[in-house]
Amino acid sequence: MKKKNEPSFYESVQRNFDRAASHTKIPSGLLAQIKECNAVYQIRFPVKIGANYEVIEAYRVQHSHHRAPTKGGIRYSRKVTQEEVMALAALMSYKCAIVDVPFGGAKGGVKISPREYSTAQLEKITRRYTTELVRKNFIGPGIDVPAPDYGTGSREMAWILDTYMVFKGGEIDAAGCVTGKPVAQSGIRGREEATGRGVFYGIREVVNDAELMNSVGLEVGLEGKTMAVQGLGNVGYHTAKISSEEGGVKVISVAEYEGAIYNKSGIDIEKLHRHRARTGSIMDFPGAKNLEQRKATLEVRCDILVPAALENQIKKSNANRIKAKVIAEAANGPVTADAEEMLLKKGVIIIPDMYINAGGVTVSYFEWLKNLSHMRFGRLEKRFDQNTYLNLVNLVERQTGKSIKEREKTVLARGADEIDLVRSGLEETMVTAYGQIREIMHRKKDVKDLRTAAFVNALGKIASDYINLGVFP
Ligand code: NAD
Fold first, then answer.
1. CB of 334 shorter than 6 A to ligand 1
2. Same domain for 324 and 451?
C-alpha cells in the first residue's frame, strides 16, 4: 500500500527516467514516446469458484513497440494495480535494451492471491486470462510473450501454452508464445534459476570492481562477503543458493512471508529450503535465531542486501536504518526514488533492478529462439566438439608421452550441453552489460550511480531504434 509522502512504484520509475534523460541529448518528443506505455489492456472476467462466480481483475501492458515481440512476466498478487503493471512493463523495455535482448517491454498482472485458490481454480483463472489475451491479440510469438513473475512459475506457463494451442495450434511457432515453460513442454534448461544466476553474475561483477569496492571500504571479491536476502521465492532462493555454493558468500539472514531468521555463521540455503518445504516455514531453522519482525532482515549489518520480494520495501521511513554497503535489486523496484537519494548520499552502491534481474528475460530470449528454431541448443555441435577436443587431448598425450586418466579426458573433451550454453550465454550477457554501464560512468563524469548509467544506456539504444525505424528523424 502506498504510504503518504512516498512515491508510488510508477512514480519512482518515471523519476528515475527523468533523472537519466537529463544526461542524454535525446529530443524531448522522442523521450516522451519512450516514457509512455503504448498499450494498456484492462480486463475483468468471470470465473466460477466453488458455487459462486468471481470477477477477476487483470491487466496486460505493452510499454514499448520499438521492437517486436514485447516481453514480460505475469504477476499474480492481491496488490496488482494498473499502475504497478505499467511500472513493471516500462522496466522491461529498459531491461531488454540493457542486456541487448531484442524485445519491447510488457507485463501482465492478475489481482489474486494464489494462496487463496486451489490448483484447479488457478488453472481455470490462468486459462481464462490467456483466452482474453488471445481474443485481443495480446499474445503470440511475434506479438507479446509472457513469462513467470511473482506468484507464477512454469506450471502457469504450461497452462498458457496449452490454452494458446487450443486457438492457434496450427501456428508453426506457437510454442514461442510464452517462456519459462517446463523443459518437457518446450522450455529450456536453466530458465528456472536464470534470474537468480544472473543476479549472482551481476553482484560478482560489482564486487570485483576495485573502484566501487574502494568507495565502500570493502575488499575486492565475493568469497566471504555477507548477504541478507528478503524473499526465498524463485529469485531469492536461486540468488542465495548460487552465491553461497559457487561464490563462497555467507548468507546470514533470510526473510520470508512468515518471518525472518539470522545466523552470523551463515545459513545453508538448500537445507533451509527443505526445512521450509517440510514445516511450511523458515522459522525455527536449526542454528539460526528467529528475528522479531520479517523486515528486520533488511536492516541487518551485511555487505550485500538482496531484496527479492516486491517493490517499495526500502523507503524513506527505513532507508536510514539500512546498514548494507551494496544493495542488489533482485526484485523490481524494491528501493523507492526517495530512499535511493538518501542511500546514495550515504555512499551505498545500488545495483539497479533493470540490470541485476535481467537474467530471466535473457534466458527467456534463449528459450524463444529455441522454440523458433525447433531444436535444442548444442544438438548440432556437441559431438563434433567432443571428438575434436578428444583428438587434441590424445595428441598432447602422444607428444608428451604422459598418459591422461580416462576421467580427466572425459572432463577435458566434453561437448557443451544446453545448460552449459545457456549459462555461458547468460554470464556473457551480464558481464557485457555491466561493462557498458561502467563505461558510461567513466565517460560521463556527472553520472555517478549505476541506475542512472543503466538508464542512459537503455534510453540511447531505444532512441536509436526509433530513429532507425524512421519514426523520429
Ligand atoms: P516468487 O513468488 O517466486 O517469490 C517471492 C517470495 O517473496 C515469495 O516466497 C513470498 O512469500 C516472499 N515475500 C513476499 N513478501 C515478502 C516480505 N514482505 N518479506 C519477505 N518475503 C516476502 O516471485 P519471484 O519470481 O521470485 O519474484 C520476486 C521479485 O523478482 C519480483 O519483484 C519480480 O518482479 C522480480 N523478478 C522475477 C523474475 C523471474 O524470473 N521470476 C525476473 C525478474 C524479476
1. no
2. no
